[in-house]
């Protein structure tokens, strides 16, 4: 029971930090201003890790590599702490870090699409709604081109969510294959 509680708490903390670093990377790539509440939250969760890393890790082709390294380091710390609690499994650590980072990214995209879809049903002037639309559009636009709205209903969020869930299933199977 104690291991389950520690695992849960480490997953929450590691997921928040990893997600903030990945969201920061994505928001920078999409040139989203950080003056909104979501941008400020991303700074709170990631500045302490990303800013020192920028001194060591250069940008790669327009991508802030420090954010990606920060996300990987957060996952490394999470799984290393779990391995130390278990007392074994250190040889699996690189695989767990890679799969954990990708899993957080996919879950983050799913959350982004869900929030965008829900806020699109309610008329709002929130800055978050515009930000979510800006971030979700690159995921939804290709599906909208292939599948136009049916009867005025946009099914692209549903299709994207199904595809992301399939990605999680494939990722889980790849992880089981790599680890066992």
Give a description of the structure:
The protein is mainly alpha-helical and 180 residues long. It has six helices and no strands. Helix 3 (65-86) crosses helix 4 (93-121) and helix 4 (93-121) runs antiparallel to helix 6 (156-179). The longest helix has 29 residues, at 93-121. It is globular, with a radius of gyration of 18 Å.
The portion of residues assigned to helices is over 70%
The chain-level mean pLDDT equals 92
* Low-confidence segments: none
Distance between the termini: 24 Å
Q: How many strand segments? A: 0
Class by SSE composition: mainly alpha
Output the number of helix runs: 6
The succession of helices and strands, N to C, reads: HHHHHH
Strand content: under 5%
Q: Tell me, what's the shape?
A: globular
What is the gyration radius calculated from CA atoms?
A: 18 Å
Biggest sheet layout = none
Main features:
180 residues, mainly alpha
In short:
The protein has helices at 2-29, 37-54, 65-86, 93-121, 127-146, 156-179. With 180 residues, the protein is an all-alpha fold.
SSE inventory with pairings:
Layout: H1 2-29, H2 37-54, H3 65-86, H4 93-121, H5 127-146, H6 156-179
